[in-house]
Amino acid sequence: MSFRGIMLFVFAVVLLGSTTSVMSQEATTAGTYNEGLALLKAKDYEGGLIKMEKAIEMATADSNDKILGLAQKNGAVAIYNIANTKRKAGAHDEAIMMYEKGIAMNPSYSSNYEGVARAQEAKGDKVTAVKSYILAAQKAAEEGKDSKVVSRYKKAQTLVGKTYVAKDYEKAIEMANAYNEAKPDNADVNYYLSRALAESGDLPSALSAMKKAVELSGDAVPDKFTFYLAEQLEKSGNKAEAAATYRKVSEEKYKAQAEYRAGQLEG
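^ thats the sequence. predicted structure below, dont judge the formating
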């Protein structure tokens, strides 16, 4: 073989080796991701997460955006399931740390935000939990998951109500205000806010919140809203309007007392 022929052969071998190396590297990144995916499908979330984290590292080094994005999404799902196990076992702080790790890995995956809220609620940190449920609802809206938006706002609303019933009025006010900053169209939240404000002695704000609750109820105003609106009008010194509002009450639970108080005001 001539010298030229030998050099062409060597170049071809080197080129083939280089191509094989690149293909092998790409296959290894994809292969690591696929191994992780298989583990997640088998519900081995710990093992799957290890593979996904490795795939993220490799894809970052390879500038492989497609596998990077997929590994981040599935890694966040793995973290969510691991964190759920910790939360259900009562390890709430550990669970929150895991959920937050999932949020950092994939900020668009809203389930980890709800996980944080549920762990905070279980810990008794209900004010923060309301804010976290609201954030989780907002993230669900970004995902286009309307049912999760509704359920998460509902959980936040329920916490406000439970806190009012527990007579922790200061926290109930803080929670209701946080809710209203994000979604100021919930009649029940404004009802609880009004009652908590009234119990705290802030009658002007209580009256304003109850009027808002009635307004937001539209044509289906609950009688308890009407009754307590009348009561706050009465306490504010507006006797005529209070009496007229008491007269609107029709539900048996409130009617007798409403009629008596209307009569007292009118007499």
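The CA atoms of residues 117 and 132 lie 5 Å apart.
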